Description:
The complex is a heterodimer of chains A (169) and B (428). Chain A has helices spanning 2-23, 27-47, 51-76, 89-113, 129-138, 141-168. With 169 residues, chain A is an all-alpha fold. Chain A has two domains: 2-80 and 88-138, NADH-ubiquinone/plastoquinone oxidoreductase chain 6, subunit NuoJ (Four Helix Bundle (Hemerythrin (Met), subunit A)); 139-169. In chain B, the strands form two sheets. In chain B, strands 1-2 form a two-stranded antiparallel sheet. Chain B has a two-stranded antiparallel sheet with strand order 3-4. Chain B starts with a helix and ends with a helix. In chain B, 41% of the residues are buried. Chain B has 15 helices and four strands.
Amino acid sequence: MTETLLFYGFGLLSILGALGLILFKHPMNGAMSFVITLISLACLYALLSAKLIFAIQLIVYAGAIMSLILFIIMFLNIGESDLPEERGRWFYLAGGIVAIGPIAILMQRAFKTLPPGETAIVGDGFGGVQEVGMVLFTDWLLPFEIVSILLLVALVGAVVLAGKREVSE
Amino acid sequence: MSLLDILLILLRIAFGAFVPLSFVAVLVWMERRGAGFFQDRAGPNRCHVMGFRAGGLIQNLADGVKLIFKEDVVPAHITHKFYFILAPMLVFVTALLCFAVIPFADVLVIGSKEYIMQAVPLDIGILWFLAIVGFGVYGIILAGWSSHNKYGVLGGLRAASQVISYEIPMGLALVSLLVVYGTVNMTEIAQYQGQLLFGFIPMWGVVVQPLGVIIFIIAAFAETNRTPFDLAEGESEIVAGFHVEYSSMKFALFFLGEYVAMFVSSALIVTLYFGSFQIPWFATETLLFYATEVAVAIMVGLPIGAYFFAGWIRKNNKSHYDRPNDPRRREATVYIGLLWLMVMLVEVVLLGYLVFAQNGIADRLLVMILQTGTFLIKTTMMCFVYVWVRWTLPRFRYDQLQKIGWEKLMPLALLNIFITSAVIVSFG
């Protein structure tokens, strides 16, 4: 019961946040409402007992990426006056609705074909750190290692490039 | 849920919420008296209530009263009032939330049930800390940005970029630590440190990760925006940085947040590297086994310690010139009386334990209290290191700060990961 209520609560919050991202005019408001979406998504993951994804969603998306975006908004000091004037937005809106319409019908069809049945939340020990780690380091070892080396190279490369510019000055 | 369950949940949450808050008072006092000590002066010691100065602690009370009764100003030029008010709350709440996953005693076993001694018994431990620390940056960015002030924006930029860059060496230092411990669960990390290396060295993180602890502590100093990394405040250049426009309790929230963050990161350093709640050479099982002997040792040791402490109070708490009926001597007499009263109370409780309640829950409670005390003492000592560094080292220049983070600490942390992994793979 509590879980259902929480699910609806976080679901509503994430949709509201996404709407805010589109509808708010000021970039800071948009970014902050997107943060709400990301946090409520993380909570939805936690409700599905995927604890690791919950933590990673908070650390990577809500924590690191969004704080960088906020940082950039602050750094460039974008205000409403700096935004381009939107002409003919009603025209674009109508175009968007026309484009989305068929996709919505397709989605509705797809949902209807889903087999009816009870879905149960997988219990504890499904999305924990250890379980995901076991899968990552046995079934997906090679891709995991390649991706980590890629990230390491990117990190070292960024530091080297940043350091170089300082020397040449 | 039984009554005991509910009681323990309340107890743990109360510990997680109120201990950091009470420590703010201790830390502010420690900072001021510490500053006095390092600069060879007395520090604030004049404020008193009816002649009782409590070693300068009353000064905090005066400061609190001052901050509460100041006018709470929101400057007229601020357009985003919501963010302006949200920012100090974010800084404070995120600092407090980080403490929720730090264990303060070993798992308490009552009957067949196990109670994890964390405010929030989450098993993702350190990941929770990293997530919440990330949110702390929002508070700083929003404060700097919504202040709509050159100094505010500059301070916010500095603080945010510093926190973001030092998260990387911190995370990398944590990686090599997690390789050693093999878990992210804080209680398991603490239990791991109860083992002995070669049979006689406590297997603390500082012993198995000597390089990691240096990197982590430096990064933790930077994360809390404290000297030598407090360019975000930089009184001499940018006045006070991101909290220049704040007054009254909104400023106080930043202030409290800073000290809570300092307490929490000390607690984290202690948990990860200095054996958490473990008393060296006395693991939980050993303590439980020798509970009676430990209780007797405390009963004997406490009065001896109290005797010397009372002597120290008597020696120092006196006026430095002749006064009729020296009020400070009277003050000292009251303190010493209180001290002996507390000692008596502890002795009575321990005696009651020895006579009536040996072997059972009482043993475990005794061990829990001892471990909590150990944890708090260690954390206080780590906080003193923060004060010590603050009043000893000057501030870095901004480019030096970024250079240390990216070009020194990060390669060292990567090297540390390689060495640790090689050792673990070849010997583990």
